[in-house]
């Protein structure tokens, strides 16, 4: 039997998704307990007993509570940014828009390091305030608490709210507002009666997405939680599976987390169909409004300044700290840490981590592209229930916790592949499956913008599918493919959670090197490694964005 090449690619992609994602996860949830082989990890009676434990209930409640607060605060911070980008043009706007991609190019471990260096007890904020007021105790002490967790989550997620809400806001027709204005409605009445109802679907989508991301947050909670009081589902799964070897408890929490993620993703996919598709008004030039003493324009400028301090301040702290070294009782600025990183010496963990990160990133990007090509062809142009089925099936890795995925692979690898398959190839495949949904989200809008009539006309002219693919599809999609490839590469560079669950010293990556340095309080060394990782991630993204143009993830 002769198969079409695309059909073979679709089958291969589904096999990889099934064998690399669903099989390990389901094997973990239904696996046998080593102490009692006749029992599976996940049993109804044990599941109910586990969830009725007061401590476990408190962990679940806190996970949901901090995720709710983080989502609300992220939307409140991002909403003015959405308004700004919708109503004004200003110098540097293109660079400011790049903030909307911050969560996708900035590894979570860098956020942790940035928060510690900028807001910590010995951070730049406290050092400045201590020098200003002449005190010996740091006046700002909120980092290792719920407040610290919330600030880190808002730093990481407000650009998502700004992006999703801003895209919807730009589609609202000015005719609605002009009609309300002609009827005597003031600014506040127009906002609450017209604009806000039209924005509610996007606000809801942003809330659900950020809620899921914060509920699944791991590195931020692990480092900034400050103790067992702020333990979340993710951290508890890690502790149960990797430290206490309580796989039954970890499976119970993983099952609950997976159910919540699946519910959240279903809400997101359903809400995406309720978007406004109108033409928005012409934007004002911000400097001109400032010259006219517009209060709205001055509010916009104040918001820009505060956000730039909030985002660039912590990142600048990483760069500055990478040049600092404590020597002879004082801090000096030096290149010592960079010289140490690139020196040829025995047991240089940085060079091996850099090499591992690069080859895992490139390998996973190739696998992600091939797998994504097969899966995206199953979704494109589909309607109704058929489309939702393929979207849920292929995008579920995006919603499921990377900690759960990593723990599932740890259990699967130890029981089936240890000693036969090199661990680095396992990590490469794991990263590919985690980045593939993002690859699909980047490519799908461009693919569906190709008129289906072209394919019909190509068949009528007697063109073969391969010729149609090479002469029509490839020129149209090659830029998007390249963007998706490097985007997957950048995401793989910063992946920590799943790697941390399964990797050993033979597969040490840059995020693991940074985490190890933070755990050992070697912050300047961690900063130097973080600068290299940040440079790789940001330069890859900027090079693609600058040469190939704008792309979308949330469409």
Would you kindly provide a written description of the structure presented here, covering whatever features stand out?
By secondary structure, the chain is mostly helical. The protein has a single domain (7-20, 43-334, 356-548), classed as MetI-like (MetI-like fold). The protein has 25 helices and six strands. The protein has helices at 5-30, 44-52, 54-87, 93-97, 102-105, 108-119, 124-133, 146-169, 174-182, 187-215, 219-224, 233-243, 247-271, 286-291, 295-321, 336-341, 349-379, 384-399, 402-417, 423-448, 452-460, 465-494, 497-502, 510-519, 523-548; strands at residues 32-33, 36-40, 88-89, 284-285, 324-327, 330-333. The strands form three sheets. Strands 1-2 form a two-stranded antiparallel ribbon. Strands 3-4 form a two-stranded parallel ribbon. Strand 1 (32-33) and strand 2 form a beta hairpin. Helix 13 crosses helix 18 (384-399) and helix 18 packs antiparallel against helix 20.
Q: Major sheet: order of its strands?
A: 1-2
Question: What is the mean pLDDT?
Answer: 81
The largest β sheet comes out as: 2 strands, antiparallel
Tally of DSSP helical segments = 25
Quick summary of this structure?
The protein contains 25 helices and 6 strands. It is mainly alpha-helical and 555 residues long.
Secondary structure: elements and pairs:
Elements: H1 5-30, E1 32-33, E2 36-40, H2 44-52, H3 54-87, E3 88-89, H4 93-97, H5 102-105, H6 108-119, H7 124-133, H8 146-169, H9 174-182, H10 187-215, H11 219-224, H12 233-243, H13 247-271, E4 284-285, H14 286-291, H15 295-321, E5 324-327, E6 330-333, H16 336-341, H17 349-379, H18 384-399, H19 402-417, H20 423-448, H21 452-460, H22 465-494, H23 497-502, H24 510-519, H25 523-548
Parallel strand pairs: 3-4
Antiparallel strand pairs: 1-2, 5-6
Helix pairs in contact: 1-17, 1-19, 2-13, 3-8, 3-10, 6-8, 6-15, 8-10, 9-10, 10-13, 12-13, 13-18, 15-25, 17-20, 17-22, 18-20, 20-22, 22-25, 24-25
